[in-house]
């Protein structure tokens, strides 16, 4: 969830941070180049005709796109008199004397045509391409042609080859096989004890099953392109792989791949083999699984979500048995400090735990014996030392830690989180984790990453692209795999990749009783694909499936960037497009205003509402003059008000200039601040796993001399802007405990030392564990080192902040005014009575039904007089009046004048009837 100016949204920092940084640096270099220098550059000299022809005759690219059985889209030389497709079963087409030729080449003739309106709608990025129609006399050759090498050529009238290229096949494969294959049941399916194994591989020359030391032929269905075989009951739990012979464009030859099942349901250690597993097998059900009682479902608009990494949760928790630390089973240890803390949050109003990726990933050795351990004692070095990060980095690629955004097999639990990664123990233990969290009063959300794979082509951890090369991955104009997501992008717009997404989510819901899904980079999915997921889940019923799919929540990252940006290839599942669907997207508007600046600032000291902008300025010159700071702070307050409304596009209020505006009319870096149609369309948050934790961001931004007590107070105030908004709110696990990652902005591979949650305040909050890893943070070291050596918080601040946050959760979940179901209800209940040119900088006063909430981010006590409430009975909310924060307990109101007095750096909630 890495925000950038609209229109240029790179992927979040995880696992792609280095790649994104490189792309951003290149883009910045281009954008910042002086215009005079660009103008002064001499025009490129015309290339000789021979050179132009040679560059067009390249079989290492795939610029032609076969969109359906009758049409190829391909721009080529205007002088071309004819075009053809050359098909070779053995992949022998080569350039011989600049003329494509092969041993068994068959030719499919093409005739120039135009794309139809329907074809342009299906492939908008090709709308301006030249179209070529496959000669009707040759269409009987199409199916067989797709099972080998296909080359497109264009020739002059005299037969001279003007252009030659490989061919992208996803469109024609969908046209020929998609409708029928979409109904197929893939992977292992049991019927009366006998398994059928099925794999979709329409381009394969041959396919077989490698199982139990022998190779078993698979049978091809020519209608669906599915290869399958039914075996005896004795195959159950046997390891297997598919043996698939296909044309692989990336290496330019026919290959025979031994590959695991894209629809694997269980695996051996390190994903070496799939297992013929029946997830309905009673042996895989923990005690009480079939009778598991779920906590009461909480609508998405009311969800209070804790985002949590499975290993972070317990790896440093000495109250958990050593064998369980860092595993699924740690959640079953009710006496562990982490579990106790989650129960405290659940009692206060937290309703969901959002688990960072827990499916099978490619970046962690699953056997403990193979996991590297840093060869040092990081605790021995000073808080501002660079030695800790160097030691951690030395083993990072081989240790047990990664965030997990590197999908290997989408529908199998990750093995490194199981006490035994070899076989079905991970299935049982994942289910035990879900059951334990449910019994603790928390529903479970999975972070799913269908927008890319860990690898493509013939790479060791490639799966989909080894089975149907060039289909599951999204291809760019030259046929290369799109990597805007940081990794090998997938193409959910293609029928069978879209089907895999739906089938996988449904399996997690039915077989693992997962209560929600958070889609990584959801904007790289078609909106239609995410809506198909919603429909499939809605069809699940307790009687038929053991779960109520209508109660499963969905949300994701609706960022708009990359090759799919601005609906270039399909209508995306972005922030604006998902409004009104009941599927939420993260809203970064208020988050940036609360924290200040953006994750890409060269100087991390740019301040915001909760970090002292104008009211408690730091020494950074990046903040501008006092007048500039004041103006920016008041605009930030407008952004936060939009966030408090649930990011509603049509919510109308008075802005800081005194104008009546809607949420959509408030500017956020050139885009509308408000985009939601209803409460629940936008997820509010002040921090998440991406970028610095909230504590670390405030460490950079608050004045260096800010006391530990005041740092804790500003943390609570920042969290309150999300927790007390309309719609769902998310916080990173440990944020209420002032969690720090020692200023690491991209901790996806930074190991346990920087990432572990410390539930016991005696262990600190993670700050001062050394300079953050150089790869993503070296440019910030000059800012970080002085802070790491000086900033400290203790148990009083850590426990006090957590208790104060829990009080706010109790208010949020106990007051119906925070749970508006419609935009009209929000409009009628919510107002900001002191907005306008006289609004106090650093203070937001919100009236919500019979409540008044004052966010005082200033270092002084503030009085906020609301004339309309003069004579109204008011008092500090009972939860805060008897609550954990002694400073908040001093907040007061004067009924006669409608004046609310709130201590410095405090959010106070009043009843006013």
UniProtKB/TrEMBL annotation:
The entry's keywords: Signal
Domain spans labelled Pullulanase N2: 62-175
Signal peptide: 1-39
InterPro entries for this protein: GH, Glyco_hydro_13_N, Glyco_hydro_b, Ig-like_fold, Ig_E-set, Pullul_strch_C, Pullulanase_N2
Record domain Glycoside hydrolase family 13 N-terminal: where: 186-264
Domain of life (superkingdom): Bacteria
Pfam family, one: Pullul_strch_C
Location of the Alpha-1,6-glucosidases pullulanase-type C-terminal domain: 764-911
Membrane-spanning intervals of the chain: none
Family: Belongs to the glycosyl hydrolase 13 family.
Entry protein name: Alpha-1,6-glucosidase domain-containing protein
């Amino acid at each position: 969830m890495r925000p950038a100016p609209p229109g240029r949204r790179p992927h979040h920092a995880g696992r792609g941070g280095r790649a994104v940084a490189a792309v951003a640096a290149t883009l910045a270099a281009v954008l910042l180049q002086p215009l005079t220098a660009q103008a002064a550059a001499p025009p490129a000299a015309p290339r000789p005709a021979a050179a132009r022809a040679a560059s067009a005759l390249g079989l290492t690219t795939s610029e032609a796109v076969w969109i359906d059985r009758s049409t190829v889209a391909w721009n080529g030389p205007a002088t071309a008199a004819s075009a053809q497709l050359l098909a070779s079963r053995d992949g022998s087409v080569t350039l011989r004397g600049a003329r494509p030729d092969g041993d068994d080449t068959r030719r499919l003739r093409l005739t120039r045509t135009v794309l139809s309106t329907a074809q342009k709608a299906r492939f908008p990025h090709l709308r301006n391409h030249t179209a070529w129609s496959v000669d009707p006399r040759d269409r009987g050759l199409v199916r067989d042609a797709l099972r080998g090498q296909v080359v497109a050529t264009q020739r002059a009238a005299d037969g001279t080859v003007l252009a030659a290229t490989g061919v992208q096949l996803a469109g024609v494969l969908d046209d020929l096989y998609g409708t029928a294959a979409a109904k197929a049941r893939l992977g292992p399916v049991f019927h009366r004890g006998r398994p059928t194994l099925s794999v979709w591989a329409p381009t394969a020359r041959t396919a077989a099953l490698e199982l139990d030391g022998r190779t078993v032929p698979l049978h091809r269905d020519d209608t669906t392109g599915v290869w399958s075989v039914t075996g005896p009951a004795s195959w159950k739990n046997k390891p297997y792989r598919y043996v698939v012979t296909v044309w692989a464009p990336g290496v330019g030859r026919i290959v025979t791949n031994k590959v695991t099942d894209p629809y694997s349901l269980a695996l051996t250690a390190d994903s070496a083999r799939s297992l013929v597993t029946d997830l309905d097998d009673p042996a895989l059900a923990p005690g009480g699984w079939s009778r598991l009682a779920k906590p009461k479902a909480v609508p998405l608009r009311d969800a209070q979500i804790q985002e949590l990494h499975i290993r972070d949760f317990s790896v440093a928790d000495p109250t958990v048995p050593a064998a369980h630390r860092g595993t699924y089973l740690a959640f079953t240890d009710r006496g562990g400090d982490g579990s106790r803390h989650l129960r405290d949050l659940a009692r206060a109003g937290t309703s969901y735990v959002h688990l960072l990726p827990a499916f099978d990933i490619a970046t962690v050795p699953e056997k403990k014996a193979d996991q590297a351990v840093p060869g040092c004692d990081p605790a021995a070095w000073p808080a501002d030392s660079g030695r800790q990060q160097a030691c951690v980095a030395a083993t990072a690629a081989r240790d047990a830690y990664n965030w997990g955004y590197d999908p290997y097999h989408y529908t199998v639990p990750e093995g490194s989180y199981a006490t035994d990664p070899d076989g079905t123990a991970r299935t049982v233990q994942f289910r035990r984790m879900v059951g334990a969290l449910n019994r603790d009063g928390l529903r479970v959300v999975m972070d799913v990453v269908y927008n890319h794979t860990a690898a493509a082509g013939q790479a060791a951890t490639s799966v989909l692209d080894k089975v149907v090369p060039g289909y599951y991955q999204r291809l760019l104009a030259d046929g290369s795999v799109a990597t805007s997501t940081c990794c090998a992008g997938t193409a959910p717009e293609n029928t069978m990749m879209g089907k895999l997404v739906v089938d996988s989510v449904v399996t997690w819901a039915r077989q693992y009783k997962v209560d929600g899904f958070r889609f990584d980079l959801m904007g790289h999915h078609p909106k239609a694909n995410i809506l198909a997921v919603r429909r499939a889940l809605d069809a699940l019923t307790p009687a038929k499936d053991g779960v109520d799919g209508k109660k499963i929540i969905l949300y994701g990252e609706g960022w708009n960037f990359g090759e799919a940006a601005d609906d270039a290839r399909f209508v995306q599942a972005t922030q604006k497009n998902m409004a009104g669907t009941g599927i939420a997207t993260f809203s970064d508007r208020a988050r940036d205003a609360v924290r200040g600046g953006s994750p890409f600032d060269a100087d991390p000291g740019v301040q915001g509402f909760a970090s002292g902008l104008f009211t408690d300025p730091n020494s950074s010159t990046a903040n501008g003059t006092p007048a500039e700071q004041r103006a920016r702070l008041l605009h930030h307050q407008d952004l936060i008000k939009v966030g408090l409304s649930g990011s509603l596009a049509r919510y109308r209020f008075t802005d800081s200039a005194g104008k009546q505006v809607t949420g959509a009319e408030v500017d956020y870096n050139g885009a509308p601040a408000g985009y939601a149609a209803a409460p629940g369309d936008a997820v509010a948050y002040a921090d998440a796993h991406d970028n610095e934790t909230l504590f670390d961001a405030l460490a950079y931004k608050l004045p260096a001399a800010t006391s530990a007590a005041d740092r804790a107070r500003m943390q609570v105030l920042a969290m309150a802007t999300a927790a007390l908004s309309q719609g769902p709110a998310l916080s990173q696990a440990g944020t209420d405990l002032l969690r720090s990652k020692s200023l690491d902005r991209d901790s996806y591979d930074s190991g346990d030392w920087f990432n572990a949650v410390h539930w016991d305040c005696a262990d600190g909050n993670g700050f001062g564990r050394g300079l953050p890893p150089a790869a993503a943070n070296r440019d910030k070291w000059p800012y970080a080192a002085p802070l790491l050596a000086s900033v400290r918080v203790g148990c009083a601040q850590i426990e006090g902040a957590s208790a104060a946050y829990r009080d706010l959760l109790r208010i949020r979940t106990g007051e119906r005014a925070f749970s508006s179901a419609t935009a009209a209800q929000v409009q009628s209940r919510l107002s900001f009575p002191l907005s306008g040119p006289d609004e106090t900088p650093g203070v937001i006063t919100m009236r919500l039904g019979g409540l008044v909430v004052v966010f005082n981010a200033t270092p002084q006590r503030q009085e906020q007089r609301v004339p309309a409430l003069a004579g109204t009975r008011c008092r500090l909310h009972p939860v805060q009046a008897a609550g954990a924060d002694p400073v908040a307990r001093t907040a007061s109101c004067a009924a006669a004048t409608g004046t609310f007095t709130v201590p410095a750096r405090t959010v106070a909630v009043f009843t006013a009837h």
